[in-house]
Specification:
The chain is an all-alpha fold. Helix content is about 55%, strand content about 0%.
């Protein structure tokens, strides 16, 4: 699967495409850092998930496509199928 490039290292969100699950996976500055283990990003991500009942648009699109929440990594078997 080709990685999409997002402007300003992910800070420029694709607002006109709220169903882009790859933004949550590869571009979102909060989600990508939280999945890597950054404690500050994890804190903000938990608040976002609680306030929005499941994450932002792109996090929910990621959950529909990959079947995992925005704070969970994609399992290896799903990644192999996508390649």
């Amino acid at each position: 699967m080709a990685k999409n490039k997002y402007g300003w290292n992910g800070w420029k969100m694709p607002l006109l495409n709220p169903d882009d699950p790859d933004y949550c996976e590869y571009g979102c500055p909060i989600c990508t850092r939280a999945r890597r283990g950054n404690s500050i990003a994890q804190f903000f991500q938990k608040i976002e998930i609680l306030v929005t009942f499941g994450g932002c648009w792109w996090g929910r699109a990621r959950q529909r496509k990959y079947g995992v929440r925005p704070d969970e990594p994609i399992p290896e078997n799903i990644q192999e199928k996508q390649s």
